[in-house]
Amino acid sequence: MSDVPPTAPVLTSDAVRTWISANVPADDFAGQRVLLIVPDATRTAPLPLLFDALHSHLGAKLSKLDVMIALGTHRPMPQDDICRLLGISETERAERYRDVELLNHEWDRPEALTEIGTLTEEQTAALSDERLRLDVPVKINRRILDYDTLLVLGPVFPHEVVGFSGGNKYFFPGLSGPELLNFFHWLGALVTNVGIIGVKDTPVRRVVDRAGAMIPTRRRCITFVVRSDAAIHGMFYGTPEEAWHDAADLSERVHIVRKPKPFHTVLSCAPPMYDEVWVAGKCMYKLEPVVADGGELIIYAPHLNEISQVHGRVIEEIGYHCRDYFLGQWEKFKDYPWGVLAHSTHVRGGGTFENGEERCRVQVTLASQISPETCAKINLGYRDPATIDVESFANRENEGVLLVRKAGEYLHRLE
């Protein structure tokens, strides 16, 4: 398949359990209250295997184990969906896991947050390489104060805002308040998706790690790097900084597909876990670098019928535009949530705004249940997904046509 790099070894289920037993020191958690922090269902991860293995290894030693979904600003997950995410059956919920609280982060409820510090103007200027200069309060879910250790369990992929996901990103934006979240998403947009994705040392990573160091509760992290079918290439344990560093090195080797030349047409197929444009935008982020100037990227998502449950109203107001469209009219847009502005620019990709005219480098087209009228309103192209024969895009790379059957996680980059 064109969207998968050369095969790399993966761990068996037994090897994963053995690794956890050997590398996660159970005695370091003895008698502790532990909050396990995991991704939502928009990330490929073998969480049922990992959660069961970790609970079997640590559970008896802990005084308390709860789970929080690092939602950022994604939609909350119902309890039944969290159980499915973790592989918890109805019987297990009533028996084995009856004392485990399953929690959603609540970024939009001020009473659910606590302020643990401030990034000053001088700090944000230094961290952002002078792109932004302002005081930013650092707020996080107040439940972190109820535990002795915060244990992150999450994958690492190339990422459009921070360079590579994982590590302290599970706190910011995963458990973050809106101020810091909006600040560094817009910082990432200023750098641009192409400039930041798949890069380890980025201004946003520096911000996230600086904020993570402010957390008063002990932080530990299990990172892992997965194949598109959720098989694990490698696992790492340590502080969030240590575990992320090693996982990002592995992700760089297995998650980046290099192509010799750009493509004029890309069919980027959104998997079912991307159920709104807010997350299906990853189908553009990971492929923008290999689309030719003036080319078209089609986000093929026949299952998708919503822009964003949380942010849809704002997106319909502002539309999808390149970064310079907003910068050239900053007084008009500066009071919108910066995280939404950043999402808009990442989906629309690079471009210019001169003399009141926007010119985007790539045509981005939605092939989903979202209507042609709505697509026009939000400045995206429209295709009826029923008119698209996916197989007709296959095996045509020498013609300048690329098919990516499960888009959103493997970064495509020119050689």
List keywords for this structure.
415 residues, alpha/beta, Rossmann fold, 2-enoyl-CoA Hydratase, Chain A, domain 1, 2 domains, six-stranded mixed beta sheet, five-stranded parallel beta sheet, 16 helices, 31% helix, globular
Describe this structure in words.
With 415 residues, the protein is an alpha/beta fold. It has 2 domains: 13-254, LarA, N-terminal domain (Rossmann fold); 257-414, 2-enoyl-CoA Hydratase, Chain A, domain 1 (Alpha-Beta Complex), CATH 3.90.226. Helix content is 31%, strand content 24%. The chain has 16 helices and 19 strands. The strands form 6 sheets. Strands 3-2-1-6-9-10 form a 6-stranded mixed beta sheet, with helices on both faces. The longest helix is centred in the middle third of the chain and has 15 residues, at 240-254. The two termini are 18 Å apart. The mean pLDDT is 96.
